[in-house]
Design brief:
Length: about 260
């Protein structure tokens, strides 16, 4: 499947002229490329797409497996219009945008595993990594999204087996134009959802799509893991957890694991 700038622009709708699009065959990481573009202080939104990455990055310093056939995209946003306290909410807003686009265009049903993973059929089909760049007196957000579109021929690598899934399953054939449509729709939804961050009007949908509310999890912070029960997600997308000793807290960052 090949990208087409014109087809992506069609899916971008009202944002068709608001985003410059760059398509690469192989890059180390579209996020790293996005940060370089931001440092050059180009005052325009830029979407970087790559067919493959050989140093794809996830949160917590992890690698993101990025073979051909998946979607690897980074949107450099030159003016988010958000306050510094609101910037961390770009990732959950992006999660809502990705779920909406996938459900609009494919048969998949999506769920969000706090804070940045999109689950399909109980496995991780997409991850989101948002990075910030200060350049001169400008502030840029680089929103990186990696999607396993198709099942991996020969299976996922050992470390992802039983964890990763894909948007399409073995017996489903993707529409011919799906990569262009998904990329354009994700960016359109993302730019729409970011506008809702100041009012938190996207939070209700983030909560509704949660995969973790009501589940027992391990909370991992500073290398320490604690058993907890997920009670809620508030309008700031903080995770409300209750520990076994009865103590409750809202988590803004960190990581949870559903595997025991
Ligand atoms: C995670 O799962 O922790 C986040 C994964 C984010 C992966 C995407 S792929 C496109 C962009 N470029 C990267 O190097 N990472 C993000």
């Amino acid at each position: 499947m090949l990208y087409s700038i014109e087809k992506i622009k069609t899916a971008l709708g009202c944002y068709r002229d608001a985003v410059k699009i760059i398509i690469e065959d192989l890059v180390p990481s579209t996020n790293d490329m996005g940060k370089e573009i931001a440092l050059s202080e180009r005052k325009e939104n830029t979407l970087i797409l790559a067919y493959r990455q050989d140093k794809g990055k996830g949160r917590m310093g992890r690698n993101f497996f990025s073979p051909e056939g998946g979607i690897y995209m980074s949107l450099v946003i030159s003016e988010t219009g958000l306050s510094p306290e609101e910037i961390p909410l770009i990732t959950p807003a992006a999660a809502v945008a990705v779920c909406r686009a996938i459900e609009e265009l494919t048969p998949a049903k999506t769920k969000i595993k706090w804070v940045n993973d999109i689950f399909v059929d109980g496995g991780k089909a997409c991850g989101i990594l948002t990075e910030s760049v200060f350049s001169g007196d400008s502030f840029f957000s680089v929103v990186g999204i990696g999607i396993n579109l198709l099942p991996q021929a020969g299976g996922f690598p050992d470390e992802l087996r039983g964890i990763a899934s894909s948007v399409y399953s073995e017996n489903q054939a993707p529409a011919k134009n799906i990569m262009n449509q998904l990329v354009g729709t994700i960016v359109r939804e993302l730019l729409d959802q970011i506008k809702l961050v100041p009012s938190r009007d996207f939070s209700e949908e983030y909560r509704r799509r949660s995969f973790v509310i009501g589940k027992d999890v391990k909370v991992i912070q500073n290398g320490i893991s604690r058993d907890a029960h997920v009670v809620s997600i508030d309008d700031d997308c903080r995770l409300g957890v209750k520990y076994q000793d009865g103590r409750e807290e809202f988590l803004f960052g960190g990581e949870i694991s559903l595997r025991f």
